[in-house]
Amino acid sequence: MARKKRPEWLDYEKLAAKIIAELRPHATVTHDDYVVGHESEARRQIDVTARWMDDQAERLLIVQVRDYKRRADVNVVGEFKSVIHDVRADRGILICSGGFSKTAITYARNIGIELFSLSDGESRRWELELTVPTLWHRYIPYIRMASQVHIKDAPLNIQLREDKSLPLICSDGVTPYDLVAEFKAAWDSGALSYEPDKEHAFPVEGTLLLAGLRPSGEVQLCETKSIKVTYTVERATYLGQLKPLDYRGLIDHLDNQNFLPSYLAMEFPPLESDTWTKITHPDRLAINVAGFFITAEDARISTAQYENLNFRYLGP
Q1: Pick from 70, 75, 243, 301: CA 20 to 30 A from residue 98's CA?
Q2: At what angle do helices 74-87 and 102-111 cross, to 10 degrees?
Q3: Tell me: the pLDDT tens digits for 191-207?
Q4: Mind listing the pLDDT tens digit for each residue in 215-225?
Q5: How confident is the model at residue 30 (pLDDT cuts 50, 70, 90)?
Q6: How many CA atoms lie within 13 A of 66 on its CB side?
Q7: Whether pLDDT at 125 is above 90
């Protein structure tokens, strides 16, 4: 026997419950619930309920879902109004896949009922051609290191490593010290400040040694003193439009059908692409967007290089 296909209206109700639960993570959301009416004293079937505590009082949001091909009319709103009143709900949301008539929108706005339809990126029937205005902040650190090195026997040849870094050695005299790797680990973990246009200190633990070659070819380890590592952060800002990989949310029929997302899965293209426009003064940028936009921050260190290595002789 062929397995009976689940009706689409049931999928639409379950999608509504999922979105409400994502938008209200601290509430108890129930699909296909029953609430006893105060006046009817009957168990009223509610497609989705959300309950939460607010100032020691339990709040109730009820959601009725209609998977109609046609627009819901003023009578549907009126019927829902009576249910809200009977169960003493704090808020009422009416969801209809076919939208709402003009009189239904006017009536709902005047009596405080919210009107939505659903959108889901995984469903062809309920998908939305969605692009998201995005402000992308990219944080780039610049490190500076200063120290004194005590050289016992001169002359001493200092050979930079292949990545142009100084041949620093940990205090055990064996383990190489990679300043960029140490900084990157702390930076990526979020332990360091991203505040731009300010000098920050980066602590270096323990004593570091500098490896050099004497004319005989013998390696000499010289102790470094007064090590000071600081960094500054440059913030570059870009403005663009992104198409989500996946999404779910509500379409607000009382607010120009703006989209209220409950879930967004985004993938950021390279900043070098034509999708992004660099903004010189982001603090002066006025964004007038109907609906929503997102602000993303990228502080990952993908590449690093050494520049401007300067040595100064301080005397014997």
Answers
A1: 243
A2: 20
A3: 999 998 899 999 988 88
A4: 888 888 888 88
A5: very high
A6: 19
A7: no
Q: Say if residue 196 is preceded by a cis peptide, omega within 30 of 0.
A: no
- The pLDDT value recorded for residue 44 is 96
Contact 32, 13 (CB under 8 A): yes
Beta bridge partners of 82: none
Residue 89 to residue 79: CA distance in whole angstroms: 14
Mean pLDDT to the nearest integer, 112-136: 88
Q: What is the DSSP string of 153-183?
A: SS--B----TTS---EE-TTSSSB--HHHHH
Domains of the chain (ranges; CATH) run: 8-120 (3.40.1350.10), 145-227 (no CATH)
Contact between 292 and 260 under an 8 Å Cβ cutoff? The reply is yes
pLDDT, average across residues 84-88: 97
Q: Any idea of the CA torsion for 93, 94, 98, 101, to the nearest 10 degrees?
A: -110
